[in-house]
Amino acid sequence: MEELLDGLNPSQQEAVVSTEGYVRVIAGAGSGKTRALTHRYAFIVNELGVDPANILSVTFTNKAAHEMRRRVKKLIGGEQDTGFITTYHGFCVRVLREDIHRLFYPKNFVILDVEDQKILLREIFEDMELKMNDKTFKRILDRIGVLKGNTHYVQQMIIRGVMPSVEESGDLDSQIIQRYLKKQKRVYGLDFDDLLNFVFTLFDQYEEVLTKWQNRLFYLQVDEFQDSSLKQFELVKLLSEKQGNLFVVGDPDQTIYEWRGADPKYMVDYEKYFPDAQTIYLKENYRSTPEILSLGNALIKNNHFRVDKDMLPTNPSGVKVTHYHGKDEIQEANWIVQQIKKIMAEKQRNLSDIAILYRANYLSRSVEQELIAENIDYTIFGGFKFFDRMEIKDAIAHLRMVAFSDDLSFSRIINVPKRQIGKKRMAFLRQKAEEDGLSLYSTMKKYVEHERLRRTGAKGFIDSIEYLKSIRKERKVSELLQESMQVTGYEAYRREDGDQERLDNMAELLHSIVQYEQTLGEGINLEEYLQMVSLYTDDDRQDQFDSVKMMTIHTAKGLEYPYVFVIGMTESVLPNVRALRQRKERGLEEERRLAYVAVTRAERALYLTESEGFQNGGQKKYPSRFIFEVEDDLYERVGELDEALIEETKDYIRASNRIEKTSGGTSYESGSRVKHPVFGEGTIQEVDEKKNNYMIFFDQLKAPRPISRNFKNLEKL
Ligand code: ATP
Ligand code: MG
């Protein structure tokens, strides 16, 4: 017990031993919230004798969940199953694997990511002989997202067996969506929205299932609670109702997912939902130097919608925060890389002690080029989309065939390499599958001697999959992957193809599984592995080797690094211009919180960089307002930032504020007839709240055009 409470301050200790009831910990960045949460978990296991299978600990990303598991295992010993240290989605998968049969889905349902969704859409577009592109896909997926905003569609589809009617039914999009839902059901696929919705439906329709989970989970805890959405909050609230133990930690100043439905009010108004709730505040910061902390504190003070709380430093004084201003992006990138070399030489640090953060993925490119030129290793989280690459998806589909033999994986790899199963034979298989109520793979097995399939590679494919199924129990996942790549001929096919990068990626996949098996020190079974991978977002690549870490600020949530560069600190990038346009004051405050998250990742030194020049869209660049809204002496300024540019920046910010405040724009409904000064009369087809524009079909144009809602000269007829 001593050990668990050692290295924690009295408030953290209180958090650790407050195991019963509703408890919230509110505290700023780097105050040891996650540490307290981890120790509390271990305390419940070691000191209260509770099995980890009875504790649900929710974190925000898979990466954070891995990290927490690793730390917990150190404290409680390695043997215990810590599967319930997971994300919201990961937890839903656990529930569904046990109980989804009640909704007439098999336990080996497939989890669909955006790429899988697009594959389904592509098939539909082909069937309907429609032209497709990424933009239409995105529009359809957005509408599907809206439909899945609540659980009605699950009730309709599953329980009443009817397809939910999509608004304005009859239009082409709705037809596509209908087909999509049918297809999705046929392959037993669930996307990320479905996971939560299916669990809610189960809990709602089958009280015994809810009771089972409520009885099982004695203790619930949530990290980064400020970024929970209504649905996520309702899930943990519901689960906690029986035992009454829910422990949450968070920092309202770090809410950065409001645009995706997060709402800090569940954190801020916790005692309204749970009147007996206990609140613990942590005040000391253990992460950063006083210099970095002062900047963070000063920056976030500019937000109006917040409860004031300052962090007190515990670390010795260090160096001032640097603001670097470059003449152009190349100079900026160059300077950053020179600093990195200096840190390495003077401080004898590892590359892994350095992180480069940015508002959007594209900003990394110039620095990447410079790092490559200087031969400095780096790893990019997010944007790289390792698990989205074709060859990686193919490889995983082979494993899924061995485990599940699902239609989606089948369609993905049956003709790669070519096995003479083209469109026509696929249509034949689909039709037979429909008639016989079988999966595509089972159908192929049944008709393998049929004249349509006799002279194809069908038999060979079946033989190799059956062989793999027969050995799967004796093999590790890594071995199974290797064998499957060989016996199906996939690897040979890739070698013939000659794309070295793809081969390297496949090798990297194998490497990552081997590493995973080694760090766990125990075998992972195939289903578990596939489940983990299917929940991977692009942020989860292994980061074991020594390299500079590059990622968006969103990805950096909860993490810390000794040296942090926040690059592209340019007005309209951070704060992001679209966030400002769409959400005005709220948008600006969320952008400022994002800057606060970035700044508070740094332990010893922080560099904010930006440069002159022009943006993607050709607009002139100015330094971010966030750089100027704190006292000047918090920075050491490097680079030539002349007074004239500062004045120009201030004018620019003032002007853009004025536009946001006065514009107002128009708010016409979809279906309205309007008149444009250049394009003439037309009809509004759609109002896109997110992009703040209308899609208008002008009578004299062939295709609809997006027109901004801020455009004042659009007249309603
Ligand atoms: P964030 O809001 O960014 O997620 P956090 O509040 O979760 O931050 P932690 O990551 O738990 O903060 O802790 C920040 C750093 O301080 C970690 O390196 C942690 O090990 C260290 N730390 C936490 N508590 C203490 C303590 N009592 N004494 C010394 N170091 C501590
Ligand atoms: Mg944390």
Automatic annotation (TrEMBL):
It catalyses: Couples ATP hydrolysis with the unwinding of duplex DNA by translocating in the 3'-5' direction; ATP + H2O = ADP + phosphate + H(+). Residues 290-558 form the UvrD-like helicase C-terminal domain. ATP binds at A27, G28, A29, G30, S31, G32, K33, T34. The keyword Iron-sulfur does not apply. It comes from the Bacteria. It holds the Pfam family UvrD-helicase. Keywords: ATP-binding, DNA-binding, Helicase, Hydrolase, Isomerase, Nucleotide-binding. One of its GO terms (molecular function) is ATP binding. Its EC number is 5.6.2.4. The keyword Methyltransferase does not apply. It is an enzyme of class 5 (isomerase). Residues 6-289 form the UvrD-like helicase ATP-binding domain. GO terms for cellular component: cytosol; DNA helicase complex. Belongs to the helicase family. UvrD subfamily. This is DNA 3'-5' helicase. It comes from Halobacillus dabanensis. The lineage of its organism: Bacteria, Bacillati, Bacillota, Bacilli, Bacillales.
